[in-house]
C-alpha cells in the first residue's frame, strides 16, 4: 500500500505545506532512521509539518486513513517510539527553534528542538534549563517524560520548568496547557509522555548557572564497593548544587590507565557541581580514597553537555533498563561491580564505548515539587540505577540483550521502590507502563480518555483510555 491509496490522501497532499517523504523519495532512508539502530521500521510516509496547521492536518489524515501514527521529535527513544511500520510518522523537523528571553528567565523551544539548541541559546549568556545529558536528544521526548540531567538536583526536572505548552489535539484544535489553561492536560504532560497530543512549543523557566566544576575520579574496580559507600554517605548531606554519578566496570584504557590488579577495569565517580573546586563538598569528594585519576576542576558546561554525544551516536543498537531506589544496599553495589566487570571482559561489543551499570544521585530540587503535582512518578527516589549496553551486529545483540535481561532481574531485586524512569527503558507493554506511572495510572487513563479516546497516539509508553 502507498500513501496515495489511503482515504483522504489527495486532500491532505493538497493542503499540507511541508514535505511528504515516501518510499520513492530520495530522502526516505534517512528520514526513517532513528537514533537507536536496533529499530528498523518502514512507514508509508514521513511528513514534516511547517506549522501548527500542518500538524493538525496530519493528525486528521492519519485518523481518517485508519493507519498507525508516530510522532518524532528527534527520534531519540530507546524503544523506537518515533517511527512506525506501515503508518504515518509526523516528524517535527521544522520545529527546532529555541529562543531565549534572558531578561525574564524564559526560553521557548519548538516541538522538534534538540537540547543542544536550547543550551546554545542560554549557556553562553549564563543561564540554563535543566535537561538531559546528550545534546542531540530531542526536547519533546525528554521533557514530556520528566527530564533528568546534571542540574536536576539544583533546579528540578525539565517538566518542572514548564510554564505554558502549545498542543495540537487529536481533534485538530490548537490549545494551550498551563496551571490555569487545561490544567488536567498540563498535569498529564509533565511526565505522561506523548499520549495526549502533539506539543509544538514549550515555554520554560531558566536559571542562572554560575561557575561549574566537573570531572572524574577513577579507582580500581576492586575498590568499587568501598568507594561507592563513601560517596553515598557524603551525598546524604550534600548541597543540592552537587551531583554525582558512579559507573562500574569501566575499561581502564578509556582513561589511559593500566590496573592489572583489577583486570584493567575501574569504578569512576563523575562529579558535576554548580560551584568551584574550593567548595567544601568538592574537597570532601576528592579526598575519598586514593584516585588513580582526578580531573575535577572548573570546566565549560557546554563541553559537559556534549561530552557523551559521540559515545551515544546514532546508528548503534541500544538496550537499556533502569529503576529507582531510596537507599542503596551493599548487595546492590556488590552486584553492579561484579556484573559490570563481567560484562566488560566477557560480553561487551568491542565497537561500543558506553558505561554499563551507573548509579546517579537524585533528590534535591526534584523533591520540591509534590509527588501528586505532576504525572512524573518517583520523586522520593534518592538514586537512579541504570544498565545501558550497545551492539552493532545481530550476534552481539542476542548476547548482550540476553545478558542485560538476566542481570537486571538480580539488580532490580535490591531496589526499595517498584518504579522506573520512562525515558531510560527499552521494553514497553502494559506491565512496564503501569509500573512507571504507579498509582497515577488511573488518573492518566481518565485524561487519555478525554483527549485521545481512540488511542490514536499509541506508539509511546502507552496509557490505555478507559473502555
TrEMBL record:
Q: Which domain of life is it from?
A: Bacteria
Cofactors that this protein relies on: FAD
Q: Which InterPro entries match?
A: BBE (IPR012951), FAD-bd_PCMH (IPR016166), FAD-bd_PCMH-like_sf (IPR036318), FAD-bd_PCMH_sub1 (IPR016167), FAD-bd_PCMH_sub2 (IPR016169), FAD-linked_Oxidoreductase (IPR050416), Oxid_FAD_bind_N (IPR006094)
- Keywords carried by this UniProt record: FAD, Flavoprotein, Oxidoreductase
Q: Name one GO molecular function term.
A: oxidoreductase activity
- What family does the Swiss-Prot or TrEMBL record give for this protein? Belongs to the oxygen-dependent FAD-linked oxidoreductase family.
Kindly provide the name given to this protein in its UniProt entry. Answer: FAD-binding protein
Amino acid at each position: 500500500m502507498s500513501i496515495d491509496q489511503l482515504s483522504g490522501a489527495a486532500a491532505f497532499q493538497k493542503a499540507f505545506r511541508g514535505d511528504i517523504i515516501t518510499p520513492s523519495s530520495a530522502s526516505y532512508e534517512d528520514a526513517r532512521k532513528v537514533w537507536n539502530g536496533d529499530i528498523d521500521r518502514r512507514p508509508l510516509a514521513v511528513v514534516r509539518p511547517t506549522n501548527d496547521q500542518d500538524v493538525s492536518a496530519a493528525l486528521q489524515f492519519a485518523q481518517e486513513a485508519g493507519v498507525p501514527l508516530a510522532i518524532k521529535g528527534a527520534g531519540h527513544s530507546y524503544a523506537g517510539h518515533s517511527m512506525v511500520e506501515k503508518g504515518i510518522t509526523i516528524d517535527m523537523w521544522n520545529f527546532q527553534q529555541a529562543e531565549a528571553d534572558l531578561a525574564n528567565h524564559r526560553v521557548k523551544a519548538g516541538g522538534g528542538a534538540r537540547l543542544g539548541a536550547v543550551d546554545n541559546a542560554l549557556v553562553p549568556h549564563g543561564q540554563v534549563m535543566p535537561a538531559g545529558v546528550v545534546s542531540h536528544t530531542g526536547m519533546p521526548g525528554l521533557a514530556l517524560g520528566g527530564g533528568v540531567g546534571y542540574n536536576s538536583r539544583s533546579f528540578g526536572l525539565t517538566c518542572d520548568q514548564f510554564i505554558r505548552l502549545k498542543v495540537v489535539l487529536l481533534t485538530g484544535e490548537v490549545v494551550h496547557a498551563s496551571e490555569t489553561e487545561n490544567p488536567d492536560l498540563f498535569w498529564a504532560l509533565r511526565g505522561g509522555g506523548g499520549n495526549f497530543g502533539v506539543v509544538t512549543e514549550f515555554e520554560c523557566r531558566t536559571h542562572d548557572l554560575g561557575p561549574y566544576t566537573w570531572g572524574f575520579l577513577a579507582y580500581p574496580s576492586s575498590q568499587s564497593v568501598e568507594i561507592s559507600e563513601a560517596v553515598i554517605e557524603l551525598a546524604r548531606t550534600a548541597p543540592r548544587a552537587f551531583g554525582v554519578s558512579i559507573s562500574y566496570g569501566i575499561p581502564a584504557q578509556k582513561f589511559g590507565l593500566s590496573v592489572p590488579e583489577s583486570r584493567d577495569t575501574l569504578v569512576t565517580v563523575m562529579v558535576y557541581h554548580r560551584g568551584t573546586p574550593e567548595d567544601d563538598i568538592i574537597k570532601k569528594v576528592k579526598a575519598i580514597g586514593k584516585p588513580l585519576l582526578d580531573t575535577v576542576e572548573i570546566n565549560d558546561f557546554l563541553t559537559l553537555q556534549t561530552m557523551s554525544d559521540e559515545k551515544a551516536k546514532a546508528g548503534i543498537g541500544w538496550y537499556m533498563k533502569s529503576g529507582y531506589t531510596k537507599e542503596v544496599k551493599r548487595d546492590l553495589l556488590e552486584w553492579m561491580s561484579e556484573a559490570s566487570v563481567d560484562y566488560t571482559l566477557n560480553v561487551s561489543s568491542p565497537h561500543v564505548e558506553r558505561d554499563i551499570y551507573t548509579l546517579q544521585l537524585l533528590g534535591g530540587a526534584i523533591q520540591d515539587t509534590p509527588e501528586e503535582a505532576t504525572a512524573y512518578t518517583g520523586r522520593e527516589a534518592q538514586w537512579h540505577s541504570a544498565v545501558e549496553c550497545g551492539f552493532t551486529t545481530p550476534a552481539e545483540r542476542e548476547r548482550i540483550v540476553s545478558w542485560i535481561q538476566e542481570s537486571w532481574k538480580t539488580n532490580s531485586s535490591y531496589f526499595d521502590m517498584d518504579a522506573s524512569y520512562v525515558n531510560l527503558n527499552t521494553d514497553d507493554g502494559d506491565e512496564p507502563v503501569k509500573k512507571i506511572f504507579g498509582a497515577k495510572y488511573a488518573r492518566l487513563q481518565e485524561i487519555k480518555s478525554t483527549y485521545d479516546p481512540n488511542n490514536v497516539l499509541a506508539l509511546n509508553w502507552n496509557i490505555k483510555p478507559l473502555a
